[in-house]
Amino acid sequence: MRVKQYSVLPGFGLTLGFTLVYLVLVALIPLSMLFFKTATMSWADFWQTMTSARTLAAFRLSFGASFVSALINAVFGLLVAWVLVRYDLPFKKIIDAFVDLPFALPTAVAGICLTAIYAPNGWIGKYLEPLGIKTAFSPLGITIALTFIGLPFVVRTVEPVLQDLDAEIEEAALSLGANRWQTFSRVIFPTLFPALLTGSAMAFARALGEYGSVVFISGNMPFKTEILPLIIMTKLEQYDYAGATAIASVMLVISFILLLLINTLHAWSRKFQEV
Amino acid sequence: MKRRNFIRLFVITALVAGVAASVAFAEDKPITLLNVSYDPTRELYQEVNQAFITHWKEKTGQDLIINQSHGGSGKQARAILDGLDADVATLALAYDVDQLFDRQRLISKDWQSKLPDNSAPYTSTIVFLVRKGNPKGIKDWDDLVKPGIAVITPNPKTSGGARWNYLAAWGYALKKSNGDESKAKEFVTGLFKNVSVLDTGARGSTTTFVERGLGDVLLAWENEAFLAIHEIGKDRFEIIVPSVSILAEPPVTVVDKVAKKHGAAEIAKAYLEFLYTDEGQEIIAKHYFRPRSEAILKKYADKYPPIPLFTIDELFDGWQKAQAKHFSDGGVFDEIYQAK
């Protein structure tokens, strides 16, 4: 197998070596600790930890809420990116900077702010409460927090692709007789789709591991609003390192499979586009 | 030529840096102590440290630097196990300190008998914080299980403080029913039916109660309740002292192995013993913890009314057993929620 390809820049061997060392040091060794710690458990214990009703409920909640929040971000993140790229707005630079704020804010602060707003006595919560909508301390609140922290991912991945997409292409589609929906669904969306998918996948993965902001807004009721990272924390609080890492490794494996699937889908859609 | 200049410059810089570093290390550094503690003791130890540094300087002429680290009690214990160089550990419950022996032998098994009063120089208890005027008329534990009363308490699985709350309620019911465990479980189940938010830590629960305006009553450490009242306003909350409660004994210990390695074992011991002196006990009383000294407790009797208090050892046979029975996975606390 010939790995080396001709390149104008020298140093392939060195950079490959560096890449490998870097990845191993930064990602692989820390992650492998997870599996080593998990391996100290017997299969029976492992199975029991995974299938306890409480853990399963947390699995459902964590994956469900993360998925919904990624979906919300896919739709509205796309919209935000579209507006930021295609329209000239006053203070556009400032609005643009707002998108990144969820990145910069410590997640605990985000959690406290969101809870303050959505609690039954908060600015928004007090209007939702009489309608019978419970936001803070419910799965809805968790989804809101996860949507908040995932927002930048979709916007920032879709934005550069949209910038590269000339408005002339739309005009061309229009002049060739496509209606507005066709222009969107046949011309614009397929170009954006890979970026949108990547962005949503990142938002999903980020949401899955989120702890800091969620514990404040979720209320942490067993079976109702306990997220997986919280279950992991409760295991650690009992000095049950193996149980904690076991759940973490299962989460990691599932996320890895999901991301792999998405990447495959990504590659496939790109191929589809080239044809 | 240029390259040679560069190399020379590099070598010189390296040499200078090396010499500077070795000089810095050779200098007589003041001794540092690290006190790894739990969350609500931040202000307490700030003042204790200042007082002890002055005390030590007068006594020995040595300069001291005392660093503090605060966080959830369990998290702090894990940090020490993972290698945080704590000379002394001052945590929320003996169970967390026990781990320092159980898992790595950082301390000896009899650590709790090395200092007076179970190695707990200050105590606290669990009281109720209610809204001003006590609109729901909450007077004692029995009022907490009444329908329509919203109780706020943190999650015992994640919060050391919450475990004291839970055990206080359990102990009350146990005492009332003359030791009937099933009655106690029924009572605690009823109590948690009235809980709608389980924050991960005690401060989180205080925030939920005070800032979010949720709940009619907050189960809180006495020191947290005092702090909430003094920080947020006497006109909004009041403290209700129940008829009986638990004696919370946050223990302190020298982390022998670490302190010995630093050559600070003696100072660390003196530091903890300082907490038992009149000066230390005064500072403790000022920061809303109950002092052990009878004389000083009497001095602050209006602040700390006498309550009949039971201990963990009396009713639960120590922390290890209480933890295993109530809070481990599949324990009584989990059963309460499984049954729902």
Overall average residue pLDDT of chain B = 89
* Share of residues in strands of chain A: under 5%
The most extensive contact between chains is: A-B, 30 and 29 residues
Find the structural class of chain A using helix and strand composition: mainly alpha
Task: Just give the CATH class of the largest domain in chain A.
Answer: Mainly Alpha
Principal-axis shape of chain A equals globular
Query: In percent, how helical is the residue content of chain A?
Result: over 70%
Oligomer: heterodimer
Instruction: Give the tally of β-strands of chain A.
Output: 0
Order of helices and strands of chain B: HEHEHEHHEEHHHEHEEEHHHEHEHHH
Task: Tell me what portion of residues of chain B adopts beta-strand conformation.
Answer: 15-25%
In round numbers, the mean pLDDT of chain A is: 88
The second-level CATH architecture of the largest domain in chain A is Orthogonal Bundle
Poorly predicted spans of chain A: none
What's the alpha carbon Rg of chain B, rounded to whole Å?
Answer: 24 Å
The low-confidence runs of chain B, each spanning 5 or more residues with pLDDT under 50, are none
Largest sheet of chain B: 7 strands, mixed
What name does the CATH topology of the largest domain in chain A carry?
Answer: MetI-like fold
Shape summary of chain B: globular
**CATH homologous superfamily of the largest domain in chain B?**
Periplasmic binding protein-like II
Verbal overview:
The complex is a heterodimer of chains A (275) and B (340). Chain A is mainly alpha-helical and 275 residues long. Helix content of chain A is 77%, strand content 0%. The longest helix of chain A is centred in the first third of the chain and has 34 residues, at 53-86. Chain A starts with 11 loop residues before the first helix and ends with a helix. Chain B is an alpha/beta fold. Chain B has two domains: 31-120 and 250-299, D-Maltodextrin-Binding Protein, domain 2 (3-Layer(aba) Sandwich); 123-248 and 308-338, Periplasmic binding protein-like II (D-Maltodextrin-Binding Protein, domain 2). Chain B contains 16 helices and eleven strands. In chain B, strands 4, 5, 6, 7, 8, 10 and 11 form a seven-stranded mixed β-sheet that branches. Chain B has a four-stranded mixed β-sheet with strand order 2-1-3-9. The longest helix of chain B has 25 residues, at 2-26. Chain A binds chain B through residues 49, 52-54, 112, 115-116, 119-122, 136-137, 215-216, 219-223, 230, 233-240, 243, and chain B through 72, 74-75, 78, 99, 103, 155, 157-158, 196-200, 204, 207, 211-214, 323, 327-330, 334, 337-338, 340.
